[in-house]
Amino acid sequence: MRKPRAKRSHLALALCTLLAPAGEAAEAAEPVETAEEAAASASQSQGSNARTLDKVSVLGSQIAGGGAQAALPVVAVDREQIDATLATNGNELFRSLPQFGDVAITEKGTTNAGRNSNVARGDVGSINLRNLGSKYTLLLVNGRRTVQHPISNSGDDTTYNANAIPVFGLDRVNLLLDGAASIYGSDAVAGVVDLVMPSNLADGGGVRLNYGKVADGHREEVSLDGYFGSDFSEGRGNLSVLYGFSRRTSQLNSDAWFTATDGRRALGDGTSVPDPNGTTGFSTRTPWGHFDTYTGSRRTGSWYVNPTTGALTSGTVPTRYHYDSAAESGITTSPAIRKGNVFATGRFDVNDSVQLFGELGYYRATSESWVSSESGFGGDGFLLHIRPDAYWVPQALRGVDAIRLLNYQFADSGIRRVKVDNDQSRVLLGVRGWTEGGWNWETALLYSRARSTDTQQGGLTDAFIEAVNRTDASAYNPFSGGDPTSIRVGDATPYDTSSFIGEATREGTTELALWDFKVNRSDLLTWYAGDIGMAAGVEYRYESRRDDRDEDIDGSNPYTDWYTGTVAASNFFTHSPRPDVRGSRNVKSALIEFAVPLVSPAQGIPLVQSLDLQIAGRWEDYSDAGKVGKPKLAAAWKVVDSLLLRGSVSGGFRAPGLELVNSPPTYGFGFNNDAVRCHALVTKGAQPDYTACLNAFSSGSSVKPSVSSVTSYGDDVKPETTRQSSWGVVFEPQFLPEGLGAISLSVDAWRVKVENPISTMGEELLYDAYLRLVEGSSNPNVVRAEVTAEDIAQFEGTGLAPAGVVTHIYNRYQNRRPLTASGVDYNLGWRLPETSWGTFSLLVSASQLKEYTQQKPAEIQQVAAAIASGQLNILVPDLGAANEVGINGAKPEWRASATLIWNLQDWTVRLRDDYIDSVTAGAYSDRTPFVVGSTQRWALSVKKEFTRGRLSGTAVEVGARNLFDKEPPLSTTGNYLSALHESYGRYLHLGISKNW
Fold first, then answer.
1. Which of 388, 675, 881, 906 is most exposed by smallest CB count within 10 Å?
2. Could you give the CA distance from residue 624 to residue 922 in angstroms, rounded to a whole number?
3. Which among 644, 648, 643 has a CA at the least distance from the CA of 631?
């Protein structure tokens, strides 16, 4: 169906859930929460002898209580710490926690990750524990799985949506910094994130109104959050509800100098400055056109419109006329978003030994972004051909067979809207209880679904060809040029584009259905060292993923070029074709776990106050990936009251993503750098170096050809297997004077090895260059056209065999060589006792990524060695690097945060500092790596609570995020790294709440 250009519509309802009562003052990172702290009485009115029924939350174990829990490196981020971040959504919250890594999938996908629906966009943020990649992180809500986001950036780049999390409604976030596949199943390779929502809220409620604004920019946000709780049936039941609604305006490119223009350059000291008159950074697509004339298959000339004279000029467009897409008025850096979220929990005690419980959650968000005007570079073989008798064709071009339109910017189309609707629902019903024999049991049914609909305005190829080839004045005129008074942006003579600007929609859906049954008891057997605990359970889950592409993109409505007869699967400008994908799987699992004490305090063994083991194993049967069993062994050795040593070893398993497994070969197109040609041009002295060579040629040239790529997934790909280990120490000095307060220090080292990660090689063109220039052969995965006279001229005098223009590249997902990552987590907590000055709490967390080593394929190692030896005149920074920490603009070695909280009577002051280490991104022409500096962003908030009179229960809070208004550091191209940094400046916050 053809979609006409849509009118700007109002944003729909969407996310933000929120507000729970503020937690206690922040604790140091505890090893694990005790059963007494986690369990709430399910029947307070039934007497002190009534058995507790509510679930005990112990992340990393299914056994409540016991010394083995101390073996688990669990960090609890409580309500006070969450408030100190001043985070307004899940993306900002996880960016503030050092244990999380780069945010590869972000709401800024419209500006930094591409301007089409082949990437996830809208109200979305990925969750990446330990920087291993979002696909290795498992997210739980109240101890059970949740559904993944339905849109990914690539076939195996799946994630949960951080922005679907009700930040203001969180009671706490528990982080298990250890492999947990043997407890929770696949995905739990890097660790587990458990979002703990409040339940059993006492009779009453609360509401909070928040307002926030970027001090220097258009972005502002208003939210209304609240909660209420109510007991019923004389305390046997409780209903607790959290809700939140918010509206945020967009941040514009014009709000910051480094996003307001594509013209930026790096100085020698590593800083970047605007460079509006420069020659790099700008788009080669321009309204001044690039018109190639053809007679038969022979190109007879190249032309563009001269901005000074308005006449056709022979040659290619000079770089000074390249387009500044970022400077178009109204383009957004981050979208406008409306959100809504409701989350309810309930429980009812059927009797003293049986309890019903349930959860009901719903999230909805609508975002609106604006991207640059449409461009057409004739992808899929340059298929935009104008007939010589079209109405607006200049007389000088009418004697040819066809005019090929390249790298054209439809500046008169105006900026284009991207609208993304997300929703996510969750329904859970369960029953738990205990038997007279001492067993605790629990079973539940869960269903969760997520849906994302991405709608973007853009050009339809067949409609454009019809419009441009009309023979009357209604035809579209691409020969009118841009704006002579503003050469790099705009169009002074716009033509009507409404006949070929339509919409394309991508709709993704994911589902999760789960049933589980678990039993546990902490005293299965008693022996010399104490009670042996046991847990066992079974689980069945169903997962599905559907990706429904627009008919103009999925091949249903292909475009056939009238001149060459070539068929393009995609009929939508600048969009590679993508097929519809549907897939599902079911997984059957069984778990067994033991908590075994080996030494107890009663034995009085010197330097071994206690020694406890966790022994666990999980078996899983995938309908599409086979059967697997993985074990875990963890130990906690309490040396003395103040010192605990802990460690674990475990195995893991990850099945390939459903989109990857079920996708047919995927076809795409884009501009690629042909290293063979630049090597030849540098060798013969036509270009001074590799970087200059790339800068000298525009996209679509033989140096940067438009290449069709084919990516496939083979039947021989195996699921990934992993091995994890961790070891650490917890020091909580019990011998300090009471006046020094309570101190807790933990240090945990970890190592993860993915033995056969699934990926593509990604450097087929470089390997082709190596084979051609060093070994005299070629890469069969790179297909080139027949050698032409132009090719021969470029290679003349080099002694090298001429190579044709690249037309196709074949990529294939395979199991690659092992990936090893290791690091150290540090946590310090210090709480001073209450004095007349109030109470002080200091929390410091740091995460060091020491190693991220992907053993390179032999092909890449050969390329890197040839570059290092000077055999290849190619500049590819860090290509052969074994350790990828801190290079390629990603994976900084250090992340850290420090939070100071001061409570004095009705006042609370929170000061927080978030630190991200430097990385390298790109290189200078002399191959010296370009360093993107480290950053510190401070947050400060002051809260006043009123406890008397009419204002009793009221609180007012003011604060600022990015307190000192720091800009993000920029890369060698002047871009900020959106996976690491935020682009907005000082964010001011005001909140007013009322509890009753």
1. 906
2. 41
3. 648
What is the rounded distance in angstroms from the CA atom of residue 494 to the CA atom of residue 481? 9
Task: Clarify whether residues 321 and 339 are in a common domain.
Answer: no
- The pTM score is 0.88
| Residue 750 resides in a domain | yes
Give yes or no: residues 296 and 353 share one domain. Answer: no
User: pLDDT by residue (tens digit) across 666-708?
Assistant: 877 777 788 888 888 888 888 888 777 877 776 667 787 767 7
User: For residue range 248-302, what is the model confidence (pLDDT) as tens digits?
Assistant: 999 999 999 989 998 887 776 667 777 766 667 788 889 999 999 999 988 899 9
Q: Which two tokens stand for residue 718?
A: 């195996």
Total domains in the fold of the chain: 2
Give the torsion through C-alpha atoms of 633, 655, 812, 154, to 10 deg.
-110
SS3 letters for 246-270? Answer: EEECCEEHHHCHHHHCCCEEECCCC
Residues 243 and 313 in one domain: no
290: helix, strand or coil: coil
228 lies in the same domain as 360: yes
Beta bridge partners of 75: 175
Q: In terms of Cα–Cα distance, which of 293, 291, 253 is closest to 274? A: 253
Evaluate whether 348 touches 356 at the Cβ level (below 8 Å): yes
- The parent domain of residue 644 ranges over 35-250+335-371+419-456+507-546+583-656+718-757+817-854+886-995
- What is the domain-level CATH number for residue 929? 2.40.170.20
- Give DSSP secondary structure letters for 767-786: HHHHIIIIIS---TTEEEPP
Choose between 420 and 9: higher pLDDT.
Answer: 420
Helices (H), 202-307: 257-260
- Spatial separation of the C-alpha atoms in residues 194 and 613, rounded to whole Å: 23
Question: Is 873 within the bounds of a domain?
Answer: no
Report H helices in 397-483: 461-468
> Is residue 916 classed exposed, middle or buried when 0-12, 13-18 and 19+ CB atoms within 10 A define those classes?
buried
One-letter identity of residue 209? L
